[in-house]
Amino acid sequence: MPELPEMETYREFLNHNILHKTITNVEINREKSINTGVQTFIEAVKGANITFVKRRAKHLIFELSSGKFLLLHLMLGGLMFLGTTKNSPDRTKQIILSFGELQLNFIGLRLGYLHLLSQVELDEKLSDLGPEPFELQRDVFLDRLERKKGALKPLLVDQSFIAGIGNCYSDEICFQARLHPLRKASDLKEEERNNLYDSIKPVLARAVQFGGYMDFPMYEGDEKTGRYNENTYVYEREGEKCPRCGGTIERVEHSYKSFYCPSCQMKV
């Protein structure tokens, strides 16, 4: 499932390529991917233009010139491709937004969605999300962490605790902080809590720099999207050597699968 770095990569690209272009056509091939009737959705979106693309947690928010918003959550298996009919991937597209010859294809939205919302509806939909990692101040993080008792992995992927982190980057953050992913938050010493905070932003920023781990190109000739796959520390690297201490990376199953180095992320 796309996490903050993947959606941030999409956001940056889309803001450079589709802003202020008129949406000339809307094609809906899966009604369950939207939250209104097909005709209602088309009438509300066609003829408008996207004035800005924002990200909130794992969502993208398309601001429309009409004052409405499109809220995207790709969920598991969802992705986007911007191109034309000539280079469009041979995949089923649940939704297509056309800007003349240019098309934004939404693919793999079996669980994902693109919802048409008002400002009030958008605020309500996102109201349960925790703070953004890049905006989170140390004192706020430590205060929120102080009230938690469970394991770090489930805590970091809890969107009400901190927004935008999922399976991949929770493991990478724990590795950077030298903390076992199943270590109890209530057992952390002050230095360890600070190390955890200090690991979040650098790991996510590095992942954004490498284009996240989504390995499907966003456009023809895309050589950035997905490069983090080649640069993970521990995620999906079971059996490989730890890049820090040379130990062997292991996988542990709890409520989530987690990858870690038992040599330098000891569970104490």
UniProtKB/TrEMBL annotation:
Keyword DNA-binding applies: yes
List the catalysed reactions.
Hydrolysis of DNA containing ring-opened 7-methylguanine residues, releasing 2,6-diamino-4-hydroxy-5-(N-methyl)formamidopyrimidine; 2'-deoxyribonucleotide-(2'-deoxyribose 5'-phosphate)-2'-deoxyribonucleotide-DNA = a 3'-end 2'-deoxyribonucleotide-(2,3-dehydro-2,3-deoxyribose 5'-phosphate)-DNA + a 5'-end 5'-phospho-2'-deoxyribonucleoside-DNA + H(+)
Q: What is its EC number?
A: 3.2.2.23, 4.2.99.18
Q: InterPro entries from the entry?
A: FPG_cat (IPR012319), FPG_Glyclase (IPR020629), FPG_N (IPR035937), H2TH_FPG (IPR015886), Ribosomal_uS13-like_H2TH (IPR010979), Znf_DNA_glyclase/AP_lyase (IPR000214), Znf_FPG/IleRS (IPR010663)
Residue ranges crossing the lipid bilayer per the database entry = none
Give the cofactors, semicolon-separated: Zn(2+)
GO molecular function annotation: class I DNA-(apurinic or apyrimidinic site) endonuclease activity; oxidized purine nucleobase lesion DNA N-glycosylase activity
Residues annotated as domain Formamidopyrimidine-DNA glycosylase catalytic? 2-100
Q: Which UniProt keywords apply?
A: DNA damage, DNA repair, DNA-binding, Glycosidase, Hydrolase, Lyase, Metal-binding, Multifunctional enzyme, Zinc, Zinc-finger
Q: Which Pfam families match?
A: Fapy_DNA_glyco, H2TH, zf-FPG_IleRS
Quaternary structure, per UniProt, is:
Monomer.
Q: Which family does it belong to?
A: Belongs to the FPG family.
What name does this protein carry?
Formamidopyrimidine-DNA glycosylase
User: Which species expresses this protein natively?
Assistant: Fictibacillus halophilus
